[in-house]
Amino acid sequence: MTAPTTAPPVSPPGERPPGIAHRLAERGIDRVLLLLVPGVVFVVVLFAYPVLYGLQLSFQPEEGGGPFANYERFFGDPYLRDTIWITLRLAVPAALFNVLASIPIAYRMRGAFRGKRVLTTILVVPITLGTVLTAQGLISYLGPAGWFNKILIGIGLTDEPVRLVNNYWGVLFSLIITGFPFAFLLTLSYLSGIDPTLEQAAATLGADRRRRFRHITFPLLAPGLAITFCLTFVLAFSVFPSAYLVGLPQGETRVISIVAYESAFRDTDYPLGSAIAMVMALVMLVVVGLVLVWRSTMYRGATGGKG
Amino acid sequence: MRLVGSPGAWLVWGAVAFFLVNLFGLVLAVVVNSFSVQWFGTWWPNGLTTDYYASAWQDLGLLDVLVVTGQVALAVVALSVLIGVPTAYALARRNFPGKRLVTVLFLLPILLPPMTYGIPLATVLYKFDLAGSVAGVIVANLVPSVPFVVLTMTPFIEQIDPRIEAAARMCGARTLSVFTRVLAPLLVPGILAASILVLVRTVGMFELTFLTAGPGSQTLVVSLYESMFSAGIRAQQAVDAVAVIYTGSMLVLLVIALRFVNPTQLVTRLKEPAP
């Protein structure tokens, strides 16, 4: 049993084998990692722990019953259960619109032209408006006596004011105004990450504008669009203040955040509120998961650009 | 941009113009209403005044609200930089087992909407009697801000050549002076950009503040929401005045932010950690 092959890794004669600190350092573990400690402790204590606490709390219903009583109550009560569909009915069209509308605009804006920075800034400004100001603006601008309805009546498109706030449309508009800039920015940055010479090469080979987009740009852009859709969908699915302010919070736009908030903080039934928050996260994960599975079937190689 | 374009181009720019005109009208409606004596059903209010700013300032105690907003925003910026930058440094410079897990842990609070983790978080903060105070609001707002600093600073630190640090050590610098004389000056632009973005996000963060704030610890957005929600108690113009003050401060912050950060580049850099 003195075969030299089983000896510990090369330690030249006269030197001790490398210490544990040295061996760990070779795998990237050294004192620098201590810098991680505050950040990781912070996320674990203030993010992971509350989420797990909420998950655990959701299995301890206040009114007794089995561990799943809160979930049974949520899915058994149509008034609670239907909030999922109400929210999806708002979030999916809003996210789809935001992504689809940003494609042509970003496509026109990918090159360099005068005033590009100004236009980008103007398109990004709505992010700063925030949901609350947007709601206030929607009420005054799109309301029955607002300028929008006055113009519609003025040019004879309609005789009576169109009802655009305090219903489904108000919330949808608010989701578009706050979500579009975000989707646009993401799409623009994905699009500028695609090497323009690929399209030029296709043009040299005789592809017209439509076919260049269909066969070159779009397939390269699609994975980015999937991510953009996921992010805007998640934002829209958790819509909260605007559903109260420009929607019909007890009816058409009784979204899932409203019931989660009301159960937890108005009725102080924290377990039910946590259970609804978990359902909310689950629905989002399912939709995002579906989109990402679909995305994994797409081309994922280099796009050749700076991105 | 060519002046004579294809029908498609006209359609796209037309739609953009339509969106922007309506957006402008939306903001203008709020601004005009906040200055109007009375505006009901006409094209233009029958008189302009600044009285409602004064009354909003007094009735809502806006000075206190602004002080709280400033305190919260500055504390969140300072703490998230202090916690986030060292983490970003370690993530940028070392490859260690479990790095992916740590990255995902920092991605989740940004990807998940505040409403989902905000409710359990507020429950926990209420349990420890932290909610309802300025400290609770700061803690809640740190949850998305620290990961945001980590994720924006990591690529920034990656692009700083590690040989610069090695060279400083070769010349005999100790860790402290490597940090203060070499790293810190190189990090300043990145920290500045991240801080401004965190500032904008914190001032605009509604959900988390709303869930954790009590009387006396509301920020501007939340008190704007409260004044809108209890509309009817006070004049619509006063609510609009608060809205204008809020938008004005957000616009100033955004203009400052855009001087330091190019929005498209930021997203491109952020894109990388995504799977």
From TrEMBL, chain B:
This is ABC transporter permease. Residues 66-257 form the ABC transmembrane type-1 domain. The chain crosses the membrane at residues 12-35, 72-92, 104-128, 134-157, 178-200, 241-261. Belongs to the binding-protein-dependent transport system permease family. Pfam families: BPD_transp_1 (PF00528). Its main location: membrane. Keywords: Cell inner membrane, Cell membrane, Membrane, Transmembrane, Transmembrane helix, Transport. It comes from the Bacteria. GO terms for cellular component: plasma membrane. It is found in: Cell inner membrane; Cell membrane. PROSITE patterns: ABC_TM1 (PS50928). It is a multi-pass membrane protein. The keyword Cell inner membrane applies.
